[in-house]
Amino acid sequence: MKKQIAVILISISICKVHAQIFLKDEFKKVESEVTGKTGGTALSNEDIIAGLKEALNKGTGNSTASASKVDGYLKNADIFIPFPPEAQKMKEELIRLGFKNKVDEFETSVNRAAEQAAQSAAPIFLDAVKNMTVTDGLSILKGSDTAATHYLKQNTSQALTAKYKPIVQDAINKNRVTEHWKGIITEYNRIPFVKKQNPDLDAYVLARALNGLFFLVGQEETKIRKDPAARVTDLLKKVFGAN
After folding, report:
1. What is d(CA 179, CA 184) in angstroms, rounded to the nearest whole number?
2. Is the pLDDT of residue 25 over 50?
3. H-only helix segments in the chain
4. Taking the complete model, does pTM exceed 0.70, yes or no?
5. Which residues pair with 38 in a beta bridge?
6. Does the pLDDT value for residue 36 go beyond 80?
7. What percentage of the chain's residues is helix, strand, coil (to nearest 5)?
8. Average pLDDT score over residue span 127-149
9. 135 alpha-carbon distance from chain centroid
10. Average pLDDT in the 171-185 region?
11. Residues whose CB is less than 8 angstroms from the CB of residue 83 and which lie 6 or more positions away in sequence, other chains included
12. Which helix or strand (DSSP H or E) is residue 224 part of?
């Protein structure tokens, strides 16, 4: 009986030791995730926020530069703005009847409008990054490869849309998007028995232009997180090298 009790007590002691070791390891793991410790150097909350803001500022700067150059949208298959999907049958019918040049002119004008609008996007994005909190930063740092981009999109889309809308409208006018669209509509409406199509071009171009920009920002964020060579400043190396 005494031997059985002794065995039980020894087993309990062993379990306690293992439990303490496990809890200690788990504590270190959590501590490492929260503080971003690496090589004995801890990240402060200020480091995390500053690093994330710098990453977003860099990402949005590179993205708007890429989108706003000539053919930034037109020749980039990932963000190219096509013929409005709801008018796809209209596009196919026009091409079948020999009006492919008009379709191409319209698509070119739409993408040129987005490229021109993107020139004014950088300061809007920069302003949107300023309000990131410590809680946001800790969550973003340990989030997905595009967590910061998602945060930016989730928290700024409404304000960005309001600010971006007149820019897109101006670009649409300068690139004669509506004029090209009216030419297509005129030709299409001459076809007997067709259902007329007239999408809201301003809303369509605005949505696709912004989606394209966020897509590029996401690419930039992923690059900084995964590629050490993309961390071009000491702060980026410190924050994302610790992640």
Report:
1. 9
2. no
3. 2-35, 45-68, 88-96, 100-118, 121-129, 134-141, 147-174, 177-189, 201-226, 234-241
4. yes
5. 41
6. no
7. 75, 0, 25
8. 86
9. 20
10. 84
11. 90, 91, 103, 106, 107
12. helix 201-226
Instruction: In whole angstroms, give the CA distance from residue 108 to residue 125.
Output: 26
Measured between alpha carbons, how far is 92 from 94 in angstroms, rounded to an integer?
Answer: 6
Q: Mean pLDDT throughout 94-109?
A: 89
Among residues 158, 165, 145, the alpha carbon closest in space to that of 219 is found at 145
pLDDT tops 80 at residue 229: yes
Cβ proximity of 94 and 88 under 8 Å = no
pLDDT at 115: 92
DSSP state, 38? Answer: B
Confidence of residue 243 (pLDDT cuts 50, 70, 90): low
Question: Whole-angstrom Cα distance, residue 15 to residue 18?
Answer: 5
Q: Is 162 left (phi over 0), alpha (psi -120 to 50) or beta?
A: alpha
pLDDT on residue 146? 93
Residue 198 corresponds to which tokens in the numbers above? 């007239």
User: What gap in Å lies between CA 75 and CA 40, rounded to an integer?
Assistant: 47
Alpha-carbon distance 185 to 201, whole Å?
Answer: 13
Domain boundary assignment for the chain: 1-35, 45-241
Q: How far apart are CA 113 and CA 212, in angstroms?
A: 13
Nearest one of 29, 38, 28 to 241, comparing CA atoms:
38
Q: Reduced to 3 states, what is the DSSP secondary structure of residue 145?
A: coil
Amino acid occupying residue 208: R
Cα distance between residue 138 and residue 51, in whole Å: 11
How far apart are alpha carbons 54 and 186 in whole angstroms? Answer: 49
* Of the candidates 144, 164, 155, the residue with the CA atom closest to the CA atom of residue 209: 164
